[in-house]
Fold these 3 entries.
Entry 1:
Amino acid sequence: MTLGAPLFWLVVFFFAPLAIVWAYSFGENDGLVRISLTGTFQNYVRALEPLYLEIFAKSALIAGLTTLLCLVLGFPFAVAVTFAPRRLKVWLLLLVMLPFWTNLLIRTYALIAVLREEGVVNGGLEFLWSAGSALSQSLGFGPLDEFKPLSLLYNNTAVVIGLVYIHLPFMVLPLYAALDRLDRSLLEASLDLGAGHARTWLFIIVPLAAPGILSGSLLTFIPALGSYLTPDLLGGPDSQMIANIIERQFKRANNWPFGAALSFILMYATFIAIALQALASGRRSKETP
Amino acid sequence: MSSGFGPKGTRRSLLAGLGVAAVGLTFSGSLAGCSPSADPADGAAAAGGEEAKLNFYNWDTYIGETTLDDFKAASGVEVNMSLFANNDELFAKLRAGNPGYDVIVPSNEFVARMIEAGMLQAIDRTKIPNFSNIDPVFQDADFDPGRLYSMPYTWLALGIGYRKSKVKGVPDSWKHLFDSAEYSGRIALLGESADLVRLCARYLGNSVRNIPADLLPRIEQMLIAQKAHVKAFHDDNGQDMLLNGEVDLVLEYNGDIAQAMKDDPDIDFVIPKEGSLLNADCLCIPVGAPHPENAHKFINYILDAKAGAAISNTILYPTPNAAAKALMPEEYRSSPVVFPPPETLATCEYGAFEGAEVSQTFEDLITRVRAS
């Protein structure tokens, strides 16, 4: 009985719509608005053409890079939060959480305002540049060349910056959850027994945080892999990720069956990643009962 | 995180909860991202008879500042307007059934497409007396013979919007956008696959209609080579990119650039000498509209001379409404941006819906260009 409501929710709002899209992926367009479910595998065959595989690979690369950068940036921060005094800890975690309370679209537009050619970063650089130019002039070296704004927006770098910014909390929170349970006496023992700080980090902290690293990476990688808005708004001419292709198949190309097949390939990839993670954490819990 | 619930850690479980909330938030965020426009009409489901409401699905920056309020004052009908970004979004929203819109604004090709798909209601001309205000040229159309399903709203031409101080002379050829490194990194193209392919065909000396299949590989090669010089494919927000200095040349519609020119006198617009693509946006009533009576009233109101002039004053697109045009100031009527001269228009053509397969071919071509 207690299971009834969530089960109903899951079936009506998750399984049923997904089943429809899944069925579409075996269909064909019949005229402009009808889809006939012919059981064809043609959509999947087409989705596995090199063109789309390359886009999948590129999406995975961008998502992987995002995950790596989030880990590199998030790990020291999570450690700092763990060892911070109680009061400060709450504030630091609040800092991570705060962006979540703003709509993704607004955050992305804010990032555009920061990165664009007449944006905050280039404005700051231009100010420094003109100050430097005035200085060199007063020293008798003549003015510097005209300031050329950096192209920070509409390229793949902008997409990665945007994705890291959006997904950092997904990495920091699980890392913090793992690190907070860490037995401090192990670190003291390691330092007492002659290991340096680097060794203690590498051989004590990182392995103990491994479950956090794994779940944080997964929580970052999966949404980053399917990200749509960020490459659409921050990306350049070649920054299309798989979700952008799916959107275009559903809208511009009006080919729902093919869009559905692409969506499900993305979904299968996600399921495989989750299954691998479950497998890995299952093995670990067996090793350390 | 799944194992983050310690036996004593109450704060930690609070944090885990926050994390879950965060995941939920981002999910809703990405959903909102899929359709940035406002939800269709919240009250639409309850619409039974002809209550004093109307759900209008329109392009952004495409109505007069006070038009909706004026209509409410005149008729008592409250208009609920939501926005779409392109015809594909409009089509995708209505494809699985009308979610409650009464009046929509598809372009010529999509009027044809939606008529073919049986998605539009015939318009009762007896309820649109203001149709007589329309310039006779626009009273019939090949995409809707006899104007049975669509009423003319605006027409528009694609061209190059540019920043005068950053461009040498007038960039009056598609070459600058499609086939030249001269303005490398300073170009934004419209992300509409069909429009891009057609304009490239036009640049290569063909009609925008019935593009021969053997020309497509050439267009693809040209765009792949040009991509290195293109900063972005925009979503019909090229005028903003031009205004904030992100690029110096954009492929855009004349009306959007005319709006930008009001804000920045350094911006201008040209229809390249090879000729261009024309579009006509139309007012239509989708099948299943909950308020068809109000929809007719609203369309008739928009075709009114004064109301039409008020709209043109804001959106600065060419109007097919002769009576409204007569009320407009001279600077609008004689603007070469809004109303390109007849000899330029003679080089322009309307596109045509040539079937789903052709659309798919264009889409695949652009996907390959962008993936390369």
Note: Chain A touches chain B through 58 residues (CB under 8 Å).
Entry 2:
Amino acid sequence: MRRYLPHVIVVFVALATFGSGFALYRAKLAALPAAPKSGPASGTHVRGKAGALVTVEEFGDFQCPPCAGMAVVLEKAEEEYGARLLVIFHHFPLAMHAHAREASLAAEAAGMQGRFWEMHDVLYREQAIWSKAPDVPSLLQSYAGTTGVDLERFKKDLANPEIASRVDADQKLGASRGVTSTPTLFVNNVALPAAEINPAGLHKAIENALKEKPKP
Amino acid sequence: MTKPAPRETQPGSLSRGGVILYSVAALFCLFGLADATYLTVLALTGETAACSGQAGCFEVLGSAYSRVAGIPVAAFGVAGYFCAFTCATFSVFNYARARKFFALTAGVLFAVTLWLLYVQAFLLHAFCRYCLFSAAITFLLMGLVVASPAPRTSEK
């Protein structure tokens, strides 16, 4: 028996490593946000199913702290309302934030490889770090790396004028709809008053929108 | 009474200290294996939550040095630590060749660790705590290899 013991131990550890790694992989995949959404073709970043009863549009700035807070609120709302809610993100980098536009460009470049929302999430989650970092471009590149994009292509896309034109187009769209600050939210095309841009206000607005559009 | 002929795989008996030493080495390998497995899963899923609050973690795990031919470096770590664990376990059970392979594997892991530390310190200027944990394990394994006693009897 002793002769076979090391073999048994090694096989057990191999199976345990593979099993736990696979289980962790499955758990991580399940925990990741639902796959996006929109690709480079449309240029609009949508999370949720088409035909949802309520559409929340956000004009956001990746360097704005309240926007980072609102990203968490929106994520919870998406979990709560599921298929009834559609979230659209538009860039609105404010001039007062030195790296906001840079971050928007990075998110768009990641979006060219279908990783916009992953980059969106990581930019908001790590905002406190990169916004004060001495070398923001390399940190943004590292974030992109963790989302699984091809870094060489990402670097090339960053210099692509199309990326910049998308951010500019979002800003123009925001300006045309009266956006002056971030985050600005529209629920079914109706602007949420500044005083109601908070978890309770958003919840109330979504509930009202659902009442107006009952399920068929 | 006639002594049983030693097994081909067991030419040199290990002292009690040696058994303890290789048992400890196997335990360290398990820690390294867990760390490398976790990092591999992170690399495969693109998940980043574990890095929260640590800029260095992102800079290292998201850098171009974190993959070789598209394969996460951590996956090679899994293979390395598993190999070291196997050798350490067989060493505990008096397999002389396993001791040689353990020393070899620990040496390779040590060399790779030195390279990765160089990359973090001088090329990326950032450190990832998971990588530092792995480096600490490798240094300990190398220390155990150096401290490992020679077998009592000569090997055939």
Note: Chain B has a mean pLDDT of 79.
Entry 3:
Amino acid sequence: MALPNSEFKNTKNLMDRDSVSQRIKRRLQLNEIFKYIFLAGLVFALLVLSTLIYDVISKGGGWVNLDFLRNFPSRRPEQAGLYPALIGTFWLMLLIVPMVFIVGVGAAIYIEEYAPKNRITSFIEVNISNLAGVPSIVFGLLGLTIFVRVMELGNSIMAGALTLGLMSLPIVIVASQEALRSVKMELRHASLALGASKWQTTFNVVLPSAIPGIITGIILAVSRAIGETAPLIMVGAATFISTTPSSVFSDFTALPIQIYNWTSRPQAEFQNLAAAGIIVLMTMLIIMNSAAIYIRNKYTNRH
Amino acid sequence: MSWMKKSALVASITSVAIIGAACGNNEEGGAADGEGLSGKVVMDGSSTVFPIMEAVAEEYSAEQPEVEVTVGVSGTGGGFKRFVTGETDFSNASREIKEEEAAEAEKNGVEYTQLAVALDGLSLVVNPENDWAQDITIEELNKMWTDPNVKTWKDVRADWPEEEISFFSPGKDSGTYDFFNEAVLDDTDIREDTQLSEDDNVLVTGVAGTKGAIGFFGYAYYIENKDTLRALNVEGIEPTTETINDLSYPLSREIYTYVNNASLKDKPQVADYTRFLNENAAALSEEVGYVGMEQARYDENAKVIDEIAGE
């Protein structure tokens, strides 16, 4: 009889407008508060980063020129350059990238595609992830013992590259695993259903879809590796060298070592040179990262 | 996929080859002007000695571009670790070789010669706002750096103010610390509230920013930071080029390089490099902030070198 009315009443009981608008207001307030907290986080990070970059550029900007890239280090700051360090770092990169690509991606493919899912596999996986957190100096000690002494590579580029490569491997393996895992099962099933073997499926279907993620992982790992000082000092990389390397078995020096050495000198000009060295290293990293993004975008569109 | 991987592989191989070839060319180019020596000269050791050795290597490579000189910075102790196994030709040191290190060298059949190359004055520095302390004795230094009951400058000398002291010292692995330990601390442990740093520039910043601070490091770091630091006279003697050179400054110290005798005898480039080093050490060390020794000392070195290298 008084149905509409009672319904209205019920509704009114169900949703008390005042309390609802109260609660909405609270939620909106909370929303605002968190928005500003997150914004503050971003601003803080950017502020620190831009202070660092400003500091480095204002100190070192005037020192970066062609001579700086072409000269050998010198006791006279005006004549000092980082040519041997730059060449050393290039050599390291050229050796590390194929090394971690072949070994790291290989290991990831085995774990993801071939290995039986049992305790041993998951034990190995956990250990690989843990290795990613081991301090770099420990890899340096390992490199000194195995590559420098046992394998008798001496203080060569090869020993340095193997050490840094070993250090980057866990990151590459974990990143590649993630990339392989994110490839849809349907793609594998479709390929297998067409009669392709496991290897054909992996190589022609899974790997191409996973390659953007894999490459990102490799570039990040290698970027970290070429910025490392401690492991290279452990394997006995030189700080000053009068020649550039002639083979992978030559002695060498690298950018972070040169920068580290300049920062520890008493004269203020050397601090500026260190800042200039940081600019060069940062530029290299930006180029590498841009290349990674370019490659990633290109292949993401293809597949 | 396969084309991509192949081309990536080809690209990386060719780039290795190109860089390799480019470097090869460089070296062949250098050989043209050579009645030159070749081979390697391997040095490692103290970061204190490094600036001198960098200068020497820089000058030497202008004269003998075919000789590959490498100078590492593993620290005095780290350098000796490699030296006593015969791995390196030279070990740079800001202190003398220790007994254990010498024993290790003997065990491995490595004979060596100690060559003093320059002098340094360990400088005790305070904040410029410190207007009370001008002069300090070794005894007072020993007391303030080892006795945990010393809290303020007044505890060191009664007419100094009650300003709290902060202590800054190079890390315990450094040769500079070893020297201070021997000359001032008498092998007693340094006080626990000392701030230790491997980077002398950190010490400079620390002392320059704390009113009651005291710290020590090599003379070069003091000279470069004269505007923000003040050095104390030790036993009444101010650290200057002259007082360090004639050793009247009590904390003057020699800095060394140790050369492997076998390398000196058998490798002509090492012998040549050693002579070059000895002849130019005085001038080059002053250029980088150290103090040269008296000429007689270098003449003595030269005699020793000739005896071993045989010429």
Note: Strands of chain A lie at 240-241.
